[in-house]
Amino acid sequence: MTSSNPAEISSSPTARAGRGLPLWQAAVGSALVATAVNLIVLFIADAAGASLTLELNGKADDIVAGGVIFASFVPPALGVTAAAFAARWKPVLLRVGQIVSGALGVLTAIGPLTSETDGGTAASLAVMHVVVGAAGVMGLEAVRRGRNA
């Protein structure tokens, strides 16, 4: 039996599931999720025997946890924050930011796939790029839902 009482409907768990987050929670949360997932990808790649070394300008550059943390946290945190502030001027910029974030995640994944490194390293770096892009999309979706709630 369902209730037609609005107070009972709004307090149901499914009604709360669609609510968004404030900007700071969406930005930090999406950055933390991207960082955690990318560290897991790094550790899996290391355990699988990937070299985790890129050759940049003739020098070998190792991929380490500190670099993964920085590269996974900063872009979604700054991107979600910048897009949300821009959306105060033009609300459509939240959706534009989602499209840009997803596109950048996929497009920048091409770089590791075409680099001079082993397949495990290239695949793990490509996945990390896509994860950062997806985190930005999800963070902006949380902001968008928070504004519509």
Mean pLDDT: 90
Strand content: 5-15%
Work out the helix count: 7
Helix content: over 70%
Write a brief structural summary.
The protein is elongated. Strand 1 and strand 2 form a beta hairpin. The chain has a two-stranded antiparallel ribbon.
Word description of this protein:
The protein has 149 residues and is mainly α. It has one domain (20-148). The chain has helices spanning 6-10, 13-17, 23-47, 65-89, 93-108, 110-113, 119-148; strands at residues 53-56, 59-62. It has a two-stranded antiparallel sheet with strand order 1-2. A hairpin with a 2-residue loop joins β1 (53-56) and β2 (59-62). α4 packs parallel to α7. The radius of gyration is 19 Å and the shape is elongated. The relative contact order is 0.20.
Topology readout:
Layout: H1 6-10, H2 13-17, H3 23-47, E1 53-56, E2 59-62, H4 65-89, H5 93-108, H6 110-113, H7 119-148
Antiparallel strand pairs: 1-2
Key terms:
single chain, 149 residues, mainly alpha, two-stranded antiparallel sheet, 7 helices, 74% helix
